[in-house]
């Protein structure tokens, strides 16, 4: 994953916008990436997730376009793409524009007509590491366009629009977690979401003595796309065999009692989802009382289950997680696990703040020694969700 710690705000994006388009933006909006602390592969099973928004954001500047066409620029230094208004809600080129086209189409379905806009996108959410740079993009674009066209779109609807864009315009059959936390995150808080009814609770995550460390494995396995959909299908099949609407309604006893009918794979998939929902509850209780040891236990359990039962980890990520138990400063780590969809990407660890950089450096060194891979780490704090930074 790339890492740009560059600050992006109204002051940095506006001069570029003016340089590209010859006039000032009327609206600038931002929406963050996320790191999931626990609750993996539970969202599309109507379960619980507990992510937090990052302080890294996708920032989108817009203004009505004087040309009668859309003019969109995907990032600083990119070409300006001209898109006729009547084609802007259809899939097309370049690939990234589908995130914007999708939002335009989904707003259109809600009766919000997106007239021609000039748009500049800039982001410091690391890409390609499973920190939801695409959810940040969808929700930021939606927030900017809703403000520009005076549309009252709730945070929940922004999340649902973002998810629909993934399904319909990018062919990713994701759950709601990433877009939801990007839309609803709050500085200093993690967010516990019940994916069955989208009720959520903000939980303070601001103990100065504990830091959230994110380390990239720097691998991404190509089987990931198909494997995600396959896991969803296996869970749906398991729910059908268990005779429940979704795995949310199952418990461990039911899963054990139905082991033979489920068969080994579906049994393990169901056991992961049911166990992970329980771990989210345990983790939420633990962080609310700053019981970091208990939070760490839940994280370790989550990783083992994702590795062995859900089979979405990979050797490099497993190496990183086990190094958390063997580096010299291992006792400064409460717990670690893979985060995000899996098959590569990042791990997340809860670490004593006073040792966080030492731990990060030791992990980089040990990972390089074990795999030959150079990588990076990030110390993250919980940031705010989608917001209009300037304009209407
Ligand atoms: C990806 C998806 C989410 C969620 C996670 C796994 O990030 O976008 O909806 O399913 O994988 O927890």
What does this protein structure show overall?
It is a single chain. This protein has helices spanning 10-21, 97-109, 133-148, 155-169, 177-184, 224-242, 252-257, 259-288, 292-308, 315-326, 356-371; strands spanning 27-38, 48-64, 70-73, 80-83, 117-123, 189-194, 199-204, 210-220, 333-338, 344-352, 377-380, 387-390. The protein is α+β, with helices and mostly antiparallel strands. Strands 1, 2, 3, 4, 5, 6, 7 and 12 form an 8-stranded mixed sheet that branches. It has a 4-stranded antiparallel sheet with strand order 9-10-8-11. Helix 2 (97-109) packs across helix 3 and helix 8 (259-288) packs antiparallel against helix 9 (292-308). The two termini are 34 Å apart. It binds alpha-D-galactopyranose (GLA). Residues 40-41, 43-44, 174-175, 177-178, 340-341 line the site of alpha-D-galactopyranose (GLA).
Characterize this entry briefly.
The protein is α+β, with helices and mostly antiparallel strands and 392 residues long. The chain has helices spanning 10-21, 97-109, 133-148, 155-169, 177-184, 224-242, 252-257, 259-288, 292-308, 315-326, 356-371, and strands spanning 27-38, 48-64, 70-73, 80-83, 117-123, 189-194, 199-204, 210-220, 333-338, 344-352, 377-380, 387-390.
Name the ligand types: alpha-D-galactopyranose
Low-confidence stretches: none
- DSSP helical segment count: 11
The helix content is: 40-55%
Strand content: 15-25%
**Tell me, what's the shape?**
globular
SSE run: HEEEEHEHHHEEEHHHHHEEHEE
Q: What's the overall average pLDDT, rounded?
A: 96
Q: Which class best fits the helix and strand makeup?
A: alpha+beta
- Rg: 21 Å
Q: Write down how many β-strands occur, each being a DSSP E stretch of 2 or more residues.
A: 12
What does the main sheet amount to?
A: 8 strands, mixed
Report the end-to-end length measured between terminal Cα atoms: 34 Å
């Amino acid at each position: 994953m790339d890492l740009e710690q560059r600050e992006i705000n109204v002051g940095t994006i506006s001069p570029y916008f003016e340089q590209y388009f010859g006039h000032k933006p009327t609206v600038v909006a931002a929406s963050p990436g996320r790191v999931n602390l626990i609750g993996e592969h539970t969202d599309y099973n109507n379960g619980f997730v507990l992510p937090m928004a990052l302080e890294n954001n996708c920032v989108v500047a817009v203004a009505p376009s004087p040309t009668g066409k859309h003019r969109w620029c995907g990032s600083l230094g990119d070409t300006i793409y001209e898109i006729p208004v009547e084609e802007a809600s259809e899939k097309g080129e370049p690939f990234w524009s589908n995130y914007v086209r999708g939002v335009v189409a989904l707003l259109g379905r809600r009766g919000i007509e997106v007239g021609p806009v000039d748009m500049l996108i800039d982001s410091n959410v690391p890409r390609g590491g499973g920190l939801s740079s695409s959810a940040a993009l969808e929700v930021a674009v939606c927030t900017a366009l809703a403000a520009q066209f005076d549309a009252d779109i709730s945070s929940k609807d922004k999340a649902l629009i973002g998810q629909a864009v993934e399904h319909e315009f990018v062919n990713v059959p994701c759950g709601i977690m990433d877009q939801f936390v990007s839309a609803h995150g709050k500085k200093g808080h993690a967010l516990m979401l019940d994916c069955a009814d989208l009720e959520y609770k903000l939980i303070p995550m601001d103990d100065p003595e504990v830091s959230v460390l994110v380390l990239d494995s720097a691998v991404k396995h190509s089987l990931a796309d198909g494997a995600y959909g396959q896991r969803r299908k296996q869970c749906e099949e398991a729910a059908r065999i268990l005779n429940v609407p979704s795995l949310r309604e199952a418990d461990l006893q039911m899963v054990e009692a139905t082991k033979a009918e489920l068969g080994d794979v579906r049994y393990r998939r169901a056991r992961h989802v049911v166990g992970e929902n329980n771990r989210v509850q345990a983790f939420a209780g633990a962080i609310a009382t700053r019981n970091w040891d208990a939070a760490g236990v839940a994280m370790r359990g989550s990783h083992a289950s994702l590795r062995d039962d859900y089979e979405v980890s990979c050797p490099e990520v497993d190496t990183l997680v086990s190094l958390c138990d063997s580096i010299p400063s291992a006792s400064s780590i409460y717990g670690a696990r893979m985060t995000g969809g899996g098959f590569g990407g990042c791990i997340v660890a809860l670490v004593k703040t006073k040792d966080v950089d030492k731990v990060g450096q030791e992990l980089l060194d040990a990972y390089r020694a074990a795999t030959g891979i150079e990588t990076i780490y990030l110390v993250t704090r919980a940031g705010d969700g989608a917001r209009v930074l300037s304009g209407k």
